[in-house]
Amino acid sequence: MARAEIYYFSGTGNSLVLAKLVAERLGGGLIPIASVIDRETIESTADVIGIVFPVYYADTPNIVRRFAEKLENVEGKYVFAICNYGGGAGDSLKTVDRILRSRGKTLSAGFGVHMPQNAFHKPWEMKSLAYRQAPKRIDFIARSIEARRTGLFYSNVLVQAMMVPFQGWLRRMTALYLEKASNTPAPSGLTVEQLMPLADRSFAVDENCNGCGTCARVCLVDNIEIVDAKPVWQSRCENCLACFNWCPTNAIHGALANTGYRYHHPDVTARDIAGQSGALT
Ligand SMILES: Cc1cc2nc3c(=O)[nH]c(=O)nc-3n(C[C@H](O)[C@H](O)[C@H](O)COP(=O)(O)O)c2cc1C
Ligand code: SF4
Ligand code: SF4
After folding, report:
1. Whose atoms come closest to the Cα of 54: which ligand?
2. What are the residues facing 152 on neighbouring strands?
3. 76-112 tens-digit pLDDT
4. Which domains does the chain have, with CATH numbers?
5. 219 CB within 6 A, ligand 3
6. Residue 54 CA to ligand 1 centre (angstroms)
7. The pTM is what?
8. 117 lines ligand 1 (CB under 6 A)
9. Could you state, in chain order, the average pLDDT of each consecutive group of 10 residues for the chain (281 residues)?
């Protein structure tokens, strides 16, 4: 039987749960992207390679881009990506495909999965429904992988098609939003990907911060230093909102997440998230 390796990145647990499910169905190994991203190249010995990640700003997280840029030894293998999102996949699967193609490789298949939104409150969202449907969607995805199907398979084809004409406008609005969050005077001429690491400049803590260090441990790119028992952000942020969502006293605020809404997947702990970089394991 073909050997599978599933690489994943997750700030609040949704991608982790999906990655676990697909690894179980395929009998494959689970590898956190954060644990290999500092390598010069990432080489997989598996025949089937999966990449599971959340959608950020209708596109691919920077860390997943870097992962795709470093991925080697994939020629002739079946490479698939599973993105998950609160609304839609945007360009995320196409971006992974484009990066691989620019290096003479291809994405065999891409799949979208709807999961609860972790960045803002959607009053109409039915989280329990999303949790119930996710394993069924993963069953479909696992069968598709076993059949070596190729192409892009979105969970909400209509929304995906409707959003295509707005993608350029969305990127401009995102850049404006991130310029504000990063205190960068507009127009900066910086791309969304260049602005994202700087957007942590809007994070601050209130008097509820007790110096516990959870925020630093769940940050998978080591972007938080605890100085005098308070977090100090280092401007290499992935915008994953793990620090914000996992802070046990809800002490973190900022333009990136300026609502009272906090989210993490109910079956995932801060220790599971931190374990992606080996911090708590
Ligand atoms: C900075 C940021 C941007 C996001 N942008 C989008 C988006 O453009 N479209 C969308 O549907 N969901 C968006 N989301 C929601 C996440 O993709 C979704 O909740 C995902 O399941 C979170 O995965 P995780 O728990 O593995 O981190 C965004 C989340 C964050 C933190
Ligand atoms: S997790 Fe929250 S309480 Fe703990 S150090 Fe970070 S901001 Fe302070
Ligand atoms: S600083 Fe917070 S939002 Fe930025 S990468 Fe780290 S955990 Fe994620």
Report:
1. 1
2. 110
3. 999 999 999 999 999 999 999 999 999 889 999 999 9
4. 4-164 (3.40.50.360), 166-277 (3.30.70.20)
5. yes
6. 5
7. 0.97
8. yes
9. 91 98 96 97 95 97 98 94 96 97 94 96 94 98 98 90 90 96 93 97 96 98 98 98 97 84 97 82 36
